[in-house]
Design goal:
Length: 333
């Protein structure tokens, strides 16, 4: 168990851990709403200790429940290394980003992924920092002029664009929510890396349009793989690692890999998971086919609080003009 101050508890609406006193008596169960009355009762104890429930303790304080060796020894889980850096140069003609800036972001990201697959992880870390800085600068510069969500979207091959689009949307939402600048910087970096586990999955699965049940099980392992890459190979901070692990968790507890719910999911993962899902929608990577951003926002509202916390969803949907009707085919040169 780990000691915790009452002051630290104030930031939690729902406790993600069990809370004990000096005698080992449990005062509050994980998942309980922390009301002001409950806080008052707790504050009477001189020393307080937190302990994760078993499934969360394994997740947060030890290796994810997938043995590292099982992936190192399995050739079927190693993608073929690229022979050269190739990326999609499609430009969104309606974007508020300059055409060269769109191409540059995709070029930087493709180079970073190439470095990752060549095991040049320190080079990749440096490049991720450079892409993050570019996104922060470019998004901050164009935000006052952006009217529609589609004006932020990079178009082209999904794997060239998805993490970039997720980082751009997450950064824009971070500014919209007036979040701390340091938090927004981490948000952009974590979004760029949230799907890093995909680099270890079989290429044939990633290229399928329809997945079998077994394919889905393999695909879902990318969250645990990504956590381990970021934590044990790249030495990233825990909050960034948790985004890779938690970005497919849902507000109602129906997600994976741990079926967390509500505020058990880290704030950064909630923001990035929502932006990632929106990019999947607008890239037609889900079972819901959309023609434009308005269709995608409608589906976001239909899914609602089952997947997302209501406050975040409200802020996202109202970030820009809802009536965004131009198709993505029309925006591509």
């Amino acid at each position: 168990m780990e000691k915790i101050d009452v002051e630290e508890l104030v930031k939690f609406k729902m406790l993600p851990f069990d809370l004990y006193n000096d005698s080992g008596v449990k005062l509050v169960n994980a998942g309980e709403i922390l009301t002001s009355g409950k806080l008052l009762q707790i504050s009477q104890y001189e020393n307080l200790y937190k302990e994760m429930p078993k499934h969360q303790e394994e997740r947060r304080t030890s290796h994810p429940p997938v043995e590292k060796e099982s992936f190192e020894q399995s050739a079927s889980f190693e993608q073929e290394k690229p022979k050269e850096i190739i990326f999609d140069k499609t430009v969104n003609r309606k974007s508020m980003f300059k055409a060269q800036s769109q191409v540059d972001m995709k070029s930087y990201f493709a180079t970073t992924m190439f470095a990752m697959q060549e095991d040049a992880k320190q080079d990749a870390i440096q490049m991720i920092g450079e892409i993050k800085d570019k996104i922060l600068d470019d998004v901050h510069a164009i935000l006052p002029e952006v009217k529609y969500c589609s004006q932020l979207k990079l178009l082209g091959n999904y794997y060239d664009c998805h993490s970039l689009n997720t980082a751009i949307l997450s950064t824009a939402l971070g500014y919209r929510l007036n979040l701390d600048e340091d938090f927004i910087e981490k948000l952009a970096k974590a979004a760029l890396l949230h799907d890093i586990g995909m680099t270890k999955l079989p290429k044939e699965i990633l290229e399928k349009s329809v997945l079998s049940q077994q394919d889905n099980k393999i695909l879902q392992t990318h969250t645990k793989i990504g956590y381990k890459i970021l934590k044990y190979e790249m030495g990233m901070p825990e909050d960034i690692c948790l985004v890779a692990l938690e970005h497919h968790e849902n507000n109602d507890g129906s997600g994976y890999p741990f079926k967390l719910s509500g505020e058990q999911i880290s704030e950064m993962a909630r923001i990035i998971g929502m932006c990632s899902f929106f990019d999947d929608l607008t890239s037609n990577r889900t079972t819901n086919r959309v023609r434009n951003t308005k269709d995608a926002l409608r589906i976001m509202l239909e899914v609602g609080s089952r997947k997302f916390t209501p406050q975040l969803l409200y802020q996202f949907v109202n970030m820009y003009n809802y009536n965004d009707l131009e198709s993505y085919e029309e925006m591509a040169q």
